[in-house]
Design a protein that fits this description.
Layout lengths: L21 H10 L5 H7 L6 H12 L4 H18 L4 H14 L4 H14 L3
Helix pairs in contact: 2-4, 3-4, 4-5, 4-6, 5-6
Amino acid sequence: MTGDNKGEDAPLTYEETLELARTETEARLAAADLEDLPLLLVSLPDMDEADWVEATCHAYLDHDDPWVANAAATALGHLARIHGRLDTEKTVAGIEAAKTRHPEMAGRMDDALSDIAFFIKR
């Protein structure tokens, strides 16, 4: 899912997520530009390495680009749905901080928080 950085009402295009091994993913994340990062991030939850995926998403929550930070939050919501576990306290705090930095993405990030609350029973 990508947008054109014009805010919450920007048109979205839906793209198939990528199926990548961890080493390839690490290399692509390191070389990715702002246009490629969101798709890479939302592709992460399909990987079997949930702890690595979670840590990687947390690293991108404080990104300067709102679409990248939003993709990290969305990926964490998907991680909760797919794997049924994550550090909810750290994740909720990280997404709330990202919402403060990128208020134009608050509604989208709230969707990720809803997914986490639904799929992770405390």
